[in-house]
Amino acid sequence: MRSRRPDTTTGIVAVVCGSRPSSETPSRDDSTLRAFDRQTALLGLDYVDMYMIHWPTPFDWRAAETWRAFVRLRDEGRVRSLGVCNFLPEHLDRLRSETGEYPGVDQIECHPTWQQRDVASYCRSRGIAVEAYSPMARGADLDAGDGLIRAIAREHGVSCAQVILRWHIENGTIIIPKSVHAERQRENLDLFGFSLTPAEHAEIDALDGPTRAGHDPLTFSYA
Ligand SMILES: NC(=O)c1ccc[n+]([C@@H]2O[C@H](COP(=O)([O-])OP(=O)(O)OC[C@H]3O[C@@H](n4cnc5c(N)ncnc54)[C@H](OP(=O)(O)O)[C@@H]3O)[C@@H](O)[C@H]2O)c1
């Protein structure tokens, strides 16, 4: 299938919220497929590059049924890669045991003060790419470490945002920083003209702590 905008890379997150399957209600697969049709119609696209399950909701686990619908979309050429967000190792393993597959990507909250290294290394050891959402803790980490990020930025003549985003890149993490300002968007892409020294990189590593900016995947129910 051809996109009407073939030069556009589009990632969309699936928020799957249909009712439980029964003889009366449409199957889970059907509600996922209907959601996909609705979303791509709104986007004006025939296919998307990435489609993701947004939350694992382990207290109301539906990921395996949703994944089977995703596989159908992939087989039909309507999605190129399948991913998840906010999955912890136990959720990745459950998905694999029930569907035979790990996702291509796990998009998790990750920034200097909440690094989730255990989740990231679990993903990498199984060939799952790690994608950091809120890579700057929604802006809060720009001042992290009592001026440490600022000092490193000054040293390299770059911004605090560039220091943090460069640290992610050096960790092999995919990043999706958000800005509504064109100038900042350009800045957030300009990460390849400098590198952190090993000592600077280690200092940012050492900022890891218990400061989550978002929700806990074990309890959060988006739908
Ligand atoms: N999968 C999930 O469950 C999940 C959860 C949360 C977020 N996300 C996604 O993750 C992406 C980014 O996360 P996020 O928006 O939460 O946090 P973020 O990217 O860490 O931070 C965004 C904040 O940083 C500011 N900022 C961006 N670039 C800057 C720069 N160069 N200098 C100074 N400030 C800068 C932005 O302000 P301005 O906009 O004013 O520039 C905004 O306030 C979003 O696309 C979001 O949808 C996914």
Automatic annotation (TrEMBL):
UniProt-listed PROSITE patterns: ALDOKETO_REDUCTASE_2, ALDOKETO_REDUCTASE_3
Domain NADP-dependent oxidoreductase: 27-208
EC supergroup of this enzyme: oxidoreductase
GO molecular function annotations of the record: morphine 6-dehydrogenase activity
Keywords: NADP, Oxidoreductase
EC numbers: 1.1.1.218
SUPFAM superfamilies for the chain: NAD(P)-linked oxidoreductase (SSF51430)
Family: Belongs to the aldo/keto reductase family.
Protein name in the entry: Aldo/keto reductase family oxidoreductase
Organism in which the protein naturally occurs: Bifidobacterium minimum
